[in-house]
Amino acid sequence: xxxxxxxxxxxxxxxxxxxxxxxxxxxxxxxxxxxxxxxxxxxxxxxxxxxxxxxxxxxxxxxxxxxxxxxxxxxxxxxxxxxxxxxxxxxxxxxxxxxxxxxxxxxxxxxxxxxxxxxxxxxxxxxxxxxxxxxxxxxxxxxxxxxxxxxxxxxxxxxxxxxxxxxxxxxxxxxxxxxxxxxxxxxxxxxxxxxxxxxxxxxxxxxxxxxxxxxxxxxxxxxxxxxxxxxxxxxxxxxxxxxxxxxxxxxxxxxxxxxxxxxxxxxxxxxxxxxxxxxxxxxxxxxxxxxxxxxxxxxxxxxxxxxxxxxxxxxxxxxxxxxxxxxxxxxxxxxxxxxxxxxxxxxxxxxxxxxxxxxxxxxxxxxxxxxxxxxxxxxxxxxxxxxxxxxxxxxxxxxxxxxxxxxxxxxxxxxxxxxxxxxxxxxxxxxxxxxxxxxxxxxxxxxxxxxxxxxxxxxxxxxxxxxxxxxxxxxxxxxxxxxxxxxxxxxxxxxxxxxxxxxxxxxxxxxxxxxxxxxxxxxxxxxxxxxxxxxxxxxxxxxxxxxxxxxxxxxxxxxxxxxxxxxxxxxxxxxxxxxx
Length: 580
Ligand SMILES: [Zn+2]
Ligand SMILES: [Zn+2]
Fold this sequence. Notes:
Largest sheet: 7 strands, mixed
Number of helices: 18
Structural class: alpha+beta
Radius of gyration: 26 Å
Number of domains: 4
Shape: globular
Mean pLDDT: 85
Strand order of the largest sheet: 4-3-6-9-10-1-11
Oligomer: single chain
Low-confidence stretches: 1-17, 70-74, 576-580
Number of strands: 27
Bound molecules: zinc ion
């Protein structure tokens, strides 16, 4: 599992507990089948070519990639030249080259150039069961299975809409969470039911509950696996449960030629005729960080161990290099890799959780051990009212989507203007979460009523549209928050908040501000922006931040100042000596 994350923070952090009742999953994502056969398991199933098109009732439907080749009468199946099929009823679906399963979830099959895109809409708890069937097949203990059910549900809540730009929530590969609809058994269902609605929170946000097969005795911090991750509960700690009763040790002998080929297939170009590999650096948990390729032309070449593992495993088989926790020996023309554990090592270790459960620990104790500092909460029905709508550029989350959809054309226009002004475009689809009342906005975001909106990750949370319109601040609020997303998408780590906030403020309204001297140091400004004590303090610190950025732009030019987002601020700007 991996995630691309951006922290776009206005100044207050608490996102609302968004509880998705349904998830839309792309099935067979790894194979993109060229053909699927759908057969009824009970009476007829129904299909349409659009949500409002005429209904067809059939017992068998074959959808091939190209309509011409599709479903001939001789095979006793219906056929259609449609691009999209909406299917309901009780059916078995059999893809060419993939596993069949029987279900009654609504299906959507679309013909795309690269293959069929098969989407299934399913209730969250059934999704949890199906992921359990794939990810926890070896689990023998109910408490570890329940811990996994919570981790899976929390992950699905935290990263809901991970594929929103592709038109669904999750794929069914390790990129998101693997799932096995055909493998769901009574124990999977019982574990999901016993923890129904339970989600791990860190402060007010669902936690990033990564998990792994076997950490090899020491868990990895999130930033060892993903450059931007830094959640305080995903840390290095020794896993005393993991090695009992039997450590997973593995050894792989590969020839330089095999390794060379897999790297080149993955688009990596190691030196010609390299001879040996050494571990150049290790991560905080002792995993291989960078590998050095020696003896070729050029004589030295560094490669991230994670890139090495993915390339070799993809080409030579997923069990060749099982983790980054290993030693390398170069011997008799072979590269010998001997390691421990399996997977990235971040978060819950399934082998350790299994041992904890066997020793009588509860699923709550397992979750506390692997995600220290998080809290388990049951989401209530009040959290379940959100509905999702999308246009080309935005996803809308709303309790009144018919009314709130009016925000689409406004947001589309302002985004286009912001992108033109800043010179680059968003590469993801942001989510606009519109609250229906000021009370629910305050209660669920934890923010005071004088904060019109705030942004975290890819979600912009807004007060009711009618309210913002009455105050004539809907457009200026959107403009400011969209600039934040654009700014954060280019910001490297360590760019101070005053600079990002000041930029957003300046870009949203570049007209002159008053030039009164604030007497504030950069440190004071940074602290006030992070935790403003009052509305007045917030307004003052905003004004100072904007003025500082405005002065920089007057001195250096807009393009130069914008470029500092990715290269870092010049020392004299960041040191505070130029503070107002
Ligand atoms: Zn995915
Ligand atoms: Zn472990």
